[in-house]
Write a structure and sequence with these properties.
The chain has helices at residues 82-98, 112-119, 170-182, 210-222, 234-242, 256-265, 273-282, 290-313, 333-338, 344-358, 393-396, and strands at 4-12, 23-29, 32-37, 47-50, 55-58, 60-65, 101-106, 127-130, 134-136, 164-166, 188-191, 227-233, 247-253, 268-270, 316-317, 376-379, 399-402, 405-409. The chain is α/β, with parallel strands linked by helices. Strands 1, 2, 3, 4, 5, 16, 17 and 18 form an 8-stranded mixed β-sheet that branches. The protein has a 5-stranded parallel β-sheet with strand order 11-12-13-14-15, sandwiched between helices. Strand 2 and strand 3 form a beta hairpin. Helix 6 packs across helix 8. The longest helix is centred in the last third of the chain and has 24 residues, at 290-313. It is globular, with a radius of gyration of 21 Å. The model has no long low-confidence stretch (mean pLDDT 94).
């Protein structure tokens, strides 16, 4: 018999609105939302959860994670085998899920093997959307060799090699894109500018020629997929979007004109401001070199202003965290950090209905509507008034369902009180 659960009395957080709704019932049948409204009928056989005084909201979506990159810096991944990196990721994924992130998009490293293990029930994890290895030019953001290393594949069996593959010239870019698609990638990640963590490329460097970018996009689109791009500088962002890149990752140095082009073309931005703030707070404990910390400070200072530029232009703004294991505790706080430039309602939308569009799961994830997948959170407090209520999920998130199955429930089913 299909499991049915009726959540009663909680105020509904509909991300399309700017404030909580009235107390509402949510009926889950199997893995889907069957009904949402007051006084739902024909639910006599459902398990009842009295959530009076709580908020009921959709599961959160993080559109920029790296499930295998959990050493203090990516270069250190060369010191661990891939089996260790995979085992470590299962701990990280479970913690994400218990913080309310019921879906995540991995944008360099996450592969079909872990996605299949999650779907088979072997790993407790957010739902995974994976891109396989990111595609980087020699010397680009995905090239983490030290200068004394001549061959990239010398670390082919280590955790570092999970992150990226090198491809130079149109034929190699086409082949690399096709290979990740063959391996089941949901999307393709390409590196278009320098980065904070990469050791040898200047932050302002512009990576990949236009014909290489266009080739990657064409291959992905012919497969029915899309390309997301690491890009910090304004010119790197513009070159990507003008050649068909669908989502820009980071995007800290965008200008007004480029943002307007993004809005016109329907491109998304997935800012990752919390990772730069976390690096600042952790200092040496972040594992970043002095040169990386200098780059981190540049992008950190630009990030909040960039959100305002995107907002003015009408660009669709998602949410990403980009945090390694030692900084994962900041994942939820990143929402409140974005609220330094955006309204709480806009931030909530970024991690729900906007990110659902990013991962092409509109009306399936990111909102509680009939027919949607039953990823459901019960929360103490009103996130529209204070996003920091989400920053302490152990205390303020007493119940989590993923696809209708309880991940966590510390409520007394009779009266909704925490036990």
């Amino acid at each position: 018999m299909t499991q049915r659960t009726l959540i009663t009395g909680a105020r509904l957080l509909d991300p399309r609105q700017d404030r909580l709704g009235a107390p509402t019932d949510v009926l889950i049948e199997g893995s889907r939302i069957l009904a949402v409204g007051q006084h739902i009928q024909n639910a006599q056989d459902a398990e009842r959860i009295d959530a009076t005084g709580l908020t009921v909201m959709p599961g959160l979506i993080d559109a920029h994670v790296h499930i295998y990159m959990n050493e203090r810096n990516i270069a250190a991944g060369a010191e661990v085998p891939q089996t260790y990196a995979a085992a470590k990721s299962t701990f990280v994924l479970k913690e994400m899920l218990h913080r309310g992130w019921t879906s995540v998009r991995d944008v360099a490293g996450g592969d079909y093997g872990m996605r299949d293990a999650v779907e088979a029930g072997y790993v407790q994890s957010p739902r995974l959307f994976v891109g396989g290895k990111a595609i980087s030019q020699t010397g680009g953001h995905g090239d983490f060799r030290g200068r004394s290393e001549s061959e990239y594949d010398c670390a082919c069996c280590t955790g570092r090699a999970l992150f990226s593959t090198l491809a130079d010239g149109v034929p190699d870019v086409i082949k690399a894109t096709r290979e990740q698609l063959r391996l089941g990638a949901d999307h393709i990640k390409i590196m278009l500018s320098g980065g904070v963590a990469s050791p040898n490329d200047p932050l302002d460097s512009i990576q990949y020629r236009v014909d290489e970018i266009a080739a990657c996009v064409e291959e992905a689109e012919r497969w029915g997929s899309y390309v997301c791009a690491h890009a910090y500088s304004d010119i790197a962002i513009r070159r990507g979007v003008e050649n068909g890149v669908r989502t820009i990752e980071h995007g800290n140095f965008v200008g007004d004109e480029t943002a307007a082009i993004m809005a016109e073309r329907g491109a998304f931005v997935v800012p990752t401001l919390i990772v730069h703030e976390a690096n600042l707070r952790l200092g040496a404990a972040s594992g970043k070199s002095p040169s990386a910390m200098e780059k981190n400070e540049r992008v950190r200072q630009a990030g909040l202003q960039a959100l305002k530029v995107y907002q003015r232009a009408g660009v669709q703004i998602g949410y990403g965290s980009d945090l390694s294991m030692h900084a994962q505790q900041f994942q939820n706080e990143g929402l409140a950090f974005h609220a330094s430039s955006l309204s709480n309602a806009e931030v909530i939308r970024s991690a729900t209905i906007v990110n659902a569009k990013v991962i092409r799961q509109e009306e399936k994830l990111g909102e509680l509507i009939p027919g949607a997948i039953a990823d459901v959170l019960l929360v103490k407090g009103d996130p529209y008034q204070d996003l920091m209520v989400l920053a302490n999920p152990a205390e303020n998130m007493p119940a989590i369902w993923q696809a209708g199955k309880p991940v966590k429930n510390i409520l007394d089913r009779r009266n909704g009180a925490s036990v």
